[in-house]
Write a structure and sequence with these properties.
mainly beta; about 0% helix; four-stranded antiparallel beta sheet; seven-stranded mixed beta sheet; 11 strands; about 120 residues; single chain
Length: about 120
């Protein structure tokens, strides 16, 4: 199993970024997928989940209305569109595969995750 995130970078407050996560080594369409993040010196924060088909998504209150999670099962890829970014969104963002049907803010809830992509929101 491999999860490879990309798309992070430095952006000004109010800006946008689109993260991608390329999955391989498993049948991507059979699994719920999540985005989580970890800011420097802080614990893991769950961001969003999508069900296997992508038709149902869940968001943390801190990103609701600004972030959109989607997936393309034909391309084995997970996306996170992030708009109206704020300095408090600065973190290392990971895609992760939950062990069950939902993610959360603890690494033990996931069986695989990528190396992360850095998002920095600063003027």
């Amino acid at each position: 199993v491999q999860l490879v995130e990309s798309g992070g970078g430095l952006v000004q407050p109010g800006g946008s970024l689109r993260l991608s996560c390329a999955a391989s080594g498993f049948t991507f369409s059979n699994y719920v997928m999540s985005w989580v993040r970890q800011a420097p010196g802080k614990g893991l924060e769950w961001v969003s989940d999508t069900n296997r088909g992508g038709g149902t998504t869940y968001y943390a209150d801190s990103v609701k209305g600004r972030f959109t999670l989607s997936r393309d099962n034909a391309k084995n890829t997970l996306y996170l569109q992030m708009n109206n970014l704020k300095p408090e969104d600065t973190a290392l963002y990971y895609c992760a595969r939950p062990k069950t049907t939902r993610g959360g803010s603890s690494w033990h809830l996931y069986d695989y995750w990528g190396q992360g992509t850095q998002v920095t929101v600063s003027s």
